[in-house]
Write a sequence for this structure.
């Protein structure tokens, strides 16, 4: 797909495939076990079946287990039932799933349980062959449903390195693969794999890999560069880096260097299904604004706190107790507007007046601005801004860890020219926020503030110490108003956060993010400061 | 947690009326005991290690921050107990005490360190006056660190009072050699 068409997808409402009749929707619960010697073979087969069964209509939906990263599968299923009138037939066993859906597959690919990477290659082969993936013990089940062998990787990769395996797979499959999406089948390593995003990759005929992006892993790093370089500009790397091989910052830095956007995680569920559910008739994304355009809010002599939950909608606190009890801003995973519009509509429909959405993260997806080639940065910003318009967002968030593993922890800042590029490309934003860890870039441009996080509330931070941290920050920043932007990790439920904030006393006030930025624009008390360019 | 730590400190102090057994002093290398300490928030989960040495009239207190057992960051305070504050130029932008907060050190600025024995050889007080940078600009933090040797000679309690922080940070250490 060329860039203009990709951009068009961003701005044109998704229409979706014709929905099948009620009896054609199936749902199934997946177990907690994702071990190669446990339930992974059956789970992988089912997820691959989902990818092929949903090829032209949303047929199969999974309820992932309670400890799954994304915890909205149940609430979203209920939402589909209530908002779309969808009805689902429950499937209880792999055999039942094949009974109902094997007819959409054209064959099976055998992976080698002794070589974990063979499953990653098998997902690629499954997409190309419109097949399901099986281990040898599942072959009889597949064949009993009329499926025939398409590929067999048993014994093929023994003794080979991942770099060798991926080079072989690239030579064989890449010419036939989708070049707009790449699947990073990373996350857990060793004997575990949680391939929640695999259905989407199979659906779209994507190439799968978990090649290391750590420069020290020279061969895999070279492979990662090759495959990134072969993708379309502004292509999407879905999934996640391997926890066993490299760092998130290394993968996102390398992808950003090719103008690619990362869309996590490897566990993102049911995307082959969700992408085909259209918005309800007449729906438009509407944010819960608290500031009227052109109206300035005068601050008092107080400490103002605004809370932002980062790390993607659907991870952590959205479904946990307390949402709506205090003002909270939420990073919107903006690509869901066209990758899974109804899923994003679910969050907009469920939002309370205290839930305020912001655009993220550095671009139309997760990118690091310092690593994006300057010639690509304007297109990145334009694409993100177009999505913000669609999603009624007027605050944008930047994060940059492009020097994460070399800076010893002080690298969340952006240089002046990068900051100016965002303000130029997003002329109507109310403001821009920045960081992940506390950062130190602050400025005001044409009445619009650029504010970095002053505090990171970790999910395990002792509550009494968090209260002391916030009071200490207020003491170290004596001018009033003081604008204290707080990053709340996604695993902190809002009730806990509220309990911390309530202990701070009357000098502190928690306000909606747009109110916070409006006041910061009216009376900034932070010192203008910029980060250094990436070396 | 703080209450429990204060109780522990009180017990340690109570158990050492005659000083540490065998003439043990505060000198040595001290390993952090997280379970007995205030929760700290350090970059990459780094853990502190303290090395205290006395040589002639001078005392050095080295606070290492260990990452996977390797020294990733080191901060040395060198002073003469009871003497005038000693000035040193800050070289790193890192403020290692708490990376959850938007506070940086101020490279090129001077910090001063002074100290005094509260109980010779056993209990030490070190006062650091250091400029830091926050979102509103530069300010100064005075930190008073009380190092108290436990009655058994193998534990060390560091109580840290920052002028900016409403509550103390209490860190408990055990003598490195005592691990055997």
């Amino acid at each position: 797909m060329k860039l203009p068409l990709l951009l068009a997808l961003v701005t044109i409402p998704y229409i979706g495939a014709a929905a099948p009749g009620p009896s054609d929707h199936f749902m199934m619960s997946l177990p907690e076990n994702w071990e190669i010697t446990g339930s992974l073979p059956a789970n992988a087969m089912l997820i691959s079946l989902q990818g092929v069964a949903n090829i032209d209509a949303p047929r199969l939906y999974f309820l992932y287990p309670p400890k799954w990263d994304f915890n909205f599968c149940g609430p979203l299923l209920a939402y589909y039932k209530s908002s779309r009138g969808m009805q689902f037939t429950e499937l209880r066993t792999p055999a039942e799933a094949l009974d109902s859906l094997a007819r959409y597959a054209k064959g099976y690919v055998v992976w080698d349980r002794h070589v974990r990477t063979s499953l990653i290659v098998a997902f690629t082969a499954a997409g190309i062959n419109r097949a399901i993936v099986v281990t040898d013990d599942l072959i009889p089940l597949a064949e009993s449903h009329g499926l025939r062998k398409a590929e067999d990787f048993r014994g093929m990769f023994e003794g080979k390195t991942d770099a060798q395996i991926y080079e072989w797979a690239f030579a064989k499959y890449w010419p036939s693969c989708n070049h707009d999406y790449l699947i990073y089948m990373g996350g857990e390593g060793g004997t575990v794999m949680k391939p929640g995003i695999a259905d989407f990759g199979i659906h779209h005929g994507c190439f799968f890999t978990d090649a290391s992006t750590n420069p020290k892993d020279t061969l895999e790093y070279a492979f990662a560069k090759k495959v990134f370089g072969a993708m379309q500009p502004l292509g999407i790397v879905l999934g996640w880096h391997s926890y066993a091989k490299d760092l998130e910052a290394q993968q996102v830095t390398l992808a950003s260097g090719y103008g690619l956007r990362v869309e996590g995680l490897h566990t993102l569920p049911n995307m082959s299904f969700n992408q085909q559910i259209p918005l309800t008739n007449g729906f438009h994304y509407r944010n819960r604004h608290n500031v009227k355009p052109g109206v300035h809010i005068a601050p008092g002599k107080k400490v103002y706190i605004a809370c932002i939950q980062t790390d993607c909608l659907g991870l952590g606190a959205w479904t946990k107790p307390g949402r709506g009890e205090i003002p909270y801003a939420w990073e919107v995973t903006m690509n869901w507007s066209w990758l899974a519009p109804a899923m994003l509509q679910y969050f907009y429909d469920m939002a309370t007046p205290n839930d305020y959405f912001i655009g993220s993260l550095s671009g139309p997806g997760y990118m690091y601005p310092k690593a994006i080639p300057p010639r690509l940065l304007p297109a990145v910003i334009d694409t993100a801004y177009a999505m913000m318009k669609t999603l009624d967002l007027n605050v944008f968030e930047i994060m940059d860890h492009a020097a994460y593993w070399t800076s010893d922890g002080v690298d969340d800042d952006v240089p002046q020219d990068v900051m100016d590029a965002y303000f130029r490309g997003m002329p109507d934003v109310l403001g821009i926020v920045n960081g992940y860890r506390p950062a130190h870039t602050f400025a005001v441009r044409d009445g619009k503030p650029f504010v970095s996080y002053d505090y990171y509330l970790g999910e395990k931070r002792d509550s009494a110490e968090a209260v002391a941290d916030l009071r200490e920050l207020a003491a170290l920043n004596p001018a009033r108003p003081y604008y204290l932007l707080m990053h709340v990790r996604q695993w902190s439920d809002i009730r806990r956060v509220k309990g911390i904030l309530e202990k701070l006393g009357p000098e502190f006030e928690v306000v909606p993010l747009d109110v916070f930025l409006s006041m910061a624009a009216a009376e900034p008390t932070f010192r203008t400061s910029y980060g250094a360019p990436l070396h | 947690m703080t209450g429990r730590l204060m109780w522990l400190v009180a017990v340690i102090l109570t158990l050492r009326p005659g000083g540490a057994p065998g003439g043990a002093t505060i000198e040595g290398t001290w390993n952090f005991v997280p379970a007995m300490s205030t929760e700290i928030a350090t970059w990459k989960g780094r853990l502190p290690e303290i090395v205290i040495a006395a040589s002639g009239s001078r005392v050095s207190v080295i606070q290492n921050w260990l990452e996977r057992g390797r020294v990733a960051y080191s901060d040395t305070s060198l002073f003469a107990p009871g003497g005038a504050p000693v000035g040193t130029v800050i070289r790193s932008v890192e403020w290692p005490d708490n990376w959850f907060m938007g506070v940086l050190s101020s490279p090129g600025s001077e910090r001063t360190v002074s100290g005094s024995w509260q109980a010779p050889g056993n209990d030490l007080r070190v006062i650091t006056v250091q400029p830091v940078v926050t979102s509103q600009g530069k300010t100064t933090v005075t930190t008073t660190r009380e190092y108290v040797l436990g009655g058994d000679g193998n534990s060390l309690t560091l109580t840290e009072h920052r002028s900016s922080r409403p509550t103390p940070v209490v860190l408990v250490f055990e003598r490195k050699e005592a691990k055997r």
Summary: Residues 40-53 of chain A form the longest helix (14 residues). Chain A has two domains: 17-274, 309-494+512-522. Residues 431 and 448 of chain A are 5 Å apart (CA to CA).
